[in-house]
Amino acid sequence: MADAVPAFVYPPELQEYAVNDQEYLRRRPEYNVLCTGVAVFDKNSKLLLVQRAADEKAFPNYWKHETNVIQEVPGGKVDNTDETLLHAAVRELKEETGLTATRVRRKVGEFSFGDGRPGRPPVTWLKLIFEIEVNDTNVTLDPIEHQRYLWASEEEIVQDLVGDVKLAYVSPPNKTIKLEAFKLRKEAVPS
């Protein structure tokens, strides 16, 4: 288990996410499992993307995509030991990238997906994505979970190409949420 979640702040409008997973799921009973995603921008307003390790159980080699492909922002399942959903996002960011959160700025969005494995009851996941500020952008990946990372501009996401890396997505919402992160960041009043 990772070290304790570092101290961070968040604005009052995120208070509804300052609850544990069970409390949040009581409010949204159409979902069974929660996970978080984290949009982190560097000083050049590029978004951090991570590529899954080759032996990762779900979608190996994915940018959190297929080999030479990009897709996901850092994140993962909310644990029952996470104090709040915001703590889960901060913990996942630290575990996967080594980055230390200082502030959760805003909710970027959410999307759901099903996990209908044969012989098991269907599970509906809800993924909540938050923009988080970090104390520095020196990424140290957990090699068990990820093998590479990139910083991508909005135009690179639109074009599905970062340098010579072709971007592909597990599902359309994974691209849409990245573009929403850029949009919200541009619309935000400087703080």
TrEMBL record:
- Source taxon at top rank: Eukaryota
- Every Nudix hydrolase domain range: 31-175
- Gene3D superfamilies in the record, alphabetically? Nucleoside Triphosphate Pyrophosphohydrolase
Pfam family of this protein, just one? NUDIX
What this protein is called in its record is: Nudix hydrolase domain-containing protein
